[in-house]
Model the fold of this input.
Amino acid sequence: MRSKRNRHLTSGKHIRSVVRGIGSYLPANKVSNADLEKMVDTTDDWIVQRTGIRNRHIAAEGETTSMLATYAARAALDNAGLNASDIDLVVVGTATPDYTFPSVATQVQASIGMTHGAAFDVQAVCSGFVFALATADKFLLSGSHKRALVIGAETFSRLLDWKDRTTCVLFGDGAGAVVLEAQEGQGTIRDRGVLTTHLRSDGRHREKLYVDGGPSSTGTVGHLRMSGREVFRHAVSMVTDVMTDAFAATGTSAEDLDWFVPHQANRRIIDASAEKLHIAPSKIVVTVEDHGNTSAASIPLALATAVADGRIKPGQLVMIEAMGGGFTWGSALIRW
Done:
């Protein structure tokens, strides 16, 4: 017998948020582990063994999060064959906005020449893109909006303490974007589009991953602080929990996945999560080696890479997941 939770997927017409286009942007400045060896007491071997990271991209002076987001947004629009006038919603996941306000999303809106609709940011740190995608999906399913730009964009280099070798080697800058379009489906898991999203948070874990500054506390930007072992300990169980929920909601399993596109934080976390759910290594998209952890940008950057090289194809089943400071975590199952 099908669960009540599953019935909307099995009969009648149903609106889906379909991925119409995708785009990405990485700053030109590429920083290798060898470059970092000259800045802090670390080695390429140490970084690679613990994280899998070899390179990351760092925004140039004056290159802001909204600029990165705009480049990715324009690429996604071009890929979709659409113009700014075709979009009526912009949702940006970011923890590194240009300003306390206005939002990055409204700056992107202005930059692409969009003068209608709504634009706002979502702050869930590394889970930001998943939260932004889930938010835009709800708007499209409600019928209030037709097409959305969903963007993950970060300049995490601006939050780093470049004397802290345990954190400064982990992060990079970048942006990725997708265009979602409301389309009518049959209400089954064969429909293209976002099939289900699952979001969680638990504020009790703040001190395990946070920034020690802010306008209301210190009046400064602050630096990222992290208890790496504690984050690793929680990450695998948390992200596999929301992935299991996605499988249960759609009547699917890990075997049904064509691609697993996780948040690119740490290769060991990625591998441990996949192993726990019995996802074959051949189905995992990994870009952490060349991008580092780009927080909310990491999933759309990885998606854009796998679409560009031909791995992800229309009709395939794709699982995305992330965990970020707060803690926040979430998943989305998408028929590409």
Observations:
- Residues 1-11 have pLDDT under 50 and may be disordered.
- The chain has two domains: 14-185, 189-335.
- The domain at 189-335 is CATH 3.40.47.10 (Peroxisomal Thiolase; Chain A, domain 1).
- The longest strand covers residues 173-185.
